[in-house]
Amino acid sequence: MKIIKEVEEASIKRSVDSGTEEQRKAVKKIIASVREKGDDSLKEYTEKFDGVTIEELKVSEVEIADAFAEMDTGMIKVIQEAADNIRDFHEKQKQSSWFTTRPDGTMLGQKLTPLDSVGVYVPGGTAAYPSSVLMNVLPAKVAGVGRITMVSPPGKDGKLSAGVLVAAKIAGVEEIYKVGGAQAVAALAYGTESISPVDKITGPGNIFVALAKREVFGDVDIDMIAGPSEIVVLADGSQHADEIAADLLSQAEHDALASAVLVTTSEELAEEVSREVERQLSTLPREEIARRSINDYGAIYVTEDLEKAVDLVNNLAPEHLEILTADPFETMAGIRHAGAIFLGRYSSEPVGDYFAGPNHVLPTNGTARFSSPLNVDEFMKKSSIISYSEKALRENGDKIAAFARLEGLEAHARAVEIRFNKRG
After folding, report:
1. I need a surface site. Which of 200, 378, 391, 418 has the fewest CB within 10 A?
2. Is 80 among the annotated ligand-binding positions?
3. What CATH number does the domain located at 21-222 have?
4. If the chain, 424 residues long, is cut into consecutive pieces of 10 residues, what is the mean pLDDT of each piece?
5. Per UniProt, where does NAD(+) bind (predicted)?
6. Is 206 annotated in some ligand binding site?
7. At 350, is the secondary structure helix, strand, or coil?
């Protein structure tokens, strides 16, 4: 890995892939086709893009039972335990409606209401991600969303992976459909004969899925357009180079565009980690992908002191941040921008990806400066409650009318004054 000792400014921002003009046109065409032809369009695109003919889009209970029979019972227990951890963590995020009163009879408040319906997109085909199912579905379930619909592209056998189906069942999904790509996003947004439209779409996907989510946003809500994965490790000189290298590579193997960065106060550790990364790369099954990531977007920054290291991390605003210092909790106090923060050598990033409980759907590409992980609030709506008494309006009516006239809105002013200026 390249070692940078004179750090003036650093960034892991990469240009967001907005697709080619040809890709954007293709997505718009797919969406229009699904809106016009419904299920027939979904089946046609599934055959065209996934190479499989699907007669029945909805996953049957028999298919789910087969998935449980196929999967090792020990692995089912692991998924169940992970789901329990994720559910427990998100339960603590729940907020309640609240109301406050004043002596003049005014009552103000906020009413929280879960979304009626959510669609969850889960990547499939050659890759399957049961963890994505849990992380997207369980916060919605905790929020109280009434209907959760899951879509995922089928494999060449016309089925979804056993892991995805087991995770969906454990998470409580009742509607699962074998369809992916932009066509699945269109179906969730606008509905077909089989799939009812939803209010929000969450979950990762390829460039066509991302473009489709952008296209339907406004008709429905979406979670985010996530970029490639990122990890920053902040370490002092007392840490283990082999462990840091392994953690960096855990993200580099995701994608050639992934970014793995070490920020350290120790030149010696920087050199050791650089050697360890090279040594471990040679034994990785996904060596080619990880090596491209390390070469193009990996870096080791050496700073004069821990304070400058923390400033650099805040500038990077990483998706994942591991703090490996003598007192990680004290160091964390200075961190302002990070999607998820992992403290100490036993909190390796994959712990959060799969099992600990916090959500692994995180802001990328520097957006941790203003964004948060996927959470229960993403699946709730907030309504403001206003109940004015006669006394309160009499006391404040002139002020409200004056403010309205300041903005040139006479009807607003009269709407208040008419309640006290009636004739006859």
Report:
1. 418
2. no
3. 3.40.50.1980
4. 83 69 94 97 96 95 97 97 98 96 96 98 83 97 98 94 97 97 98 98 92 96 89 94 97 93 97 97 95 95 95 95 97 97 97 96 94 96 96 96 98 96 63
5. 121, 183, 206
6. yes
7. helix
| Amino acid, single-letter form, for residue 38 | G
Could you give the strand order of the β-sheet that contains 221-222, starting from the edge strand earlier in sequence? 175-178, 147-152, 117-121, 200-202, 221-222
For residues 148 and 141, give the distance between their C-alpha atoms in angstroms, rounded to a whole number: 8
Known binding residue 383? Answer is no
3 state DSSP class of 321? strand
Which residues are part of the catalytic machinery? 319-320
**In this structure, are residues 297 and 14 in contact, taking their beta carbons and an 8 Å threshold?**
yes
Domain boundaries of the chain, sorted by first residue: 21-222, 227-370, 388-417
pLDDT single digits (tens) 50-76: 999 999 999 999 999 999 999 999 999
Q: Are strands 259-264 and 3-4 parallel, antiparallel or unpaired?
A: unpaired
190 is in an annotated binding site: no
| Tens-place pLDDT, residues 364-405 | 999 999 999 999 999 999 999 999 999 999 999 999 999 999
Q: Please indicate if the annotation marks 95 as binding a ligand.
A: no
Supply the mean pLDDT for the chain: 94
Same fold, 21-222 and 227-370: yes
Q: How many helices (H) and strands (E) does the chain have?
A: 16, 14
Predicted local distance difference test score (pLDDT) of residue 424: 44
| The CATH number of domain 227-370 is 3.40.50.970 | no
Measure the CA–CA gap between 179 and 50, rounded to whole angstroms: 9
How far apart (Å, rounded) are the C-alpha atoms in residues 317 and 104? 47
From residue 272, how far is each of 5, 259, 275, 304 by CA, in Å? Answer: 15, 19, 5, 18
